[in-house]
Amino acid sequence: SGQVVLRSHPDSAKDYILIDDVVTLLHQIANRGRYRVYNVASGTQTSHQQWLEAINALTGATWTLTPDAPLQAFAPIDTQRIQEEFRFKPMLPATYFLNPVKLCCSQKAI
């Protein structure tokens, strides 16, 4: 196990989306999209604290915080259009990495 040095406040958060969700959405938009503009995002803020908890659960890594770590806040992204038009329900990244079935089946043998 290692250690993560966090240079921003654990409550800092922004919208993360899995590449699997992006590819699925882009295919749906290209083939069935009714509008010219879509927000391709999860629509949910994931905090650094959530990432740290997921990393800790997977690896046992601990974390420290640099002094005066700034809180970074990003505006939420509206995903109502993709939710309604494509019934989009994103898999949140921190949840994805804690899902052993998804991890097992998505890794390719070398």
Report on this structure.
The protein has 110 residues and is of the alpha+beta class. 41% of the residues lie in helices and 13% in strands. The chain has helices at 19-32, 48-59, 80-86, 93-97, 100-106; strands at residues 3-6, 13-15, 45-47, 62-65. The model has no long low-confidence stretch (mean pLDDT 87).
List keywords for this structure.
single chain, 110 residues, alpha+beta, two-stranded parallel ribbon, two-stranded antiparallel sheet
How are the SSEs placed, and which strands pair?
Blueprint: E1 3-6, E2 13-15, H1 19-32, E3 45-47, H2 48-59, E4 62-65, H3 80-86, H4 93-97, H5 100-106
Parallel strand pairs: 1-4
Antiparallel strand pairs: 2-3
Quick overview:
The protein has 110 residues and is α+β, with helices and mostly antiparallel strands.
Q: In one word, what is the shape?
A: elongated
Strand order, main sheet: write it out.
1-4
Secondary-structure class: alpha+beta
Mean of the pLDDT scores? 87
Largest sheet: number of strands, sense, barrel closure:
2 strands, parallel
Specify the number of helices: 5
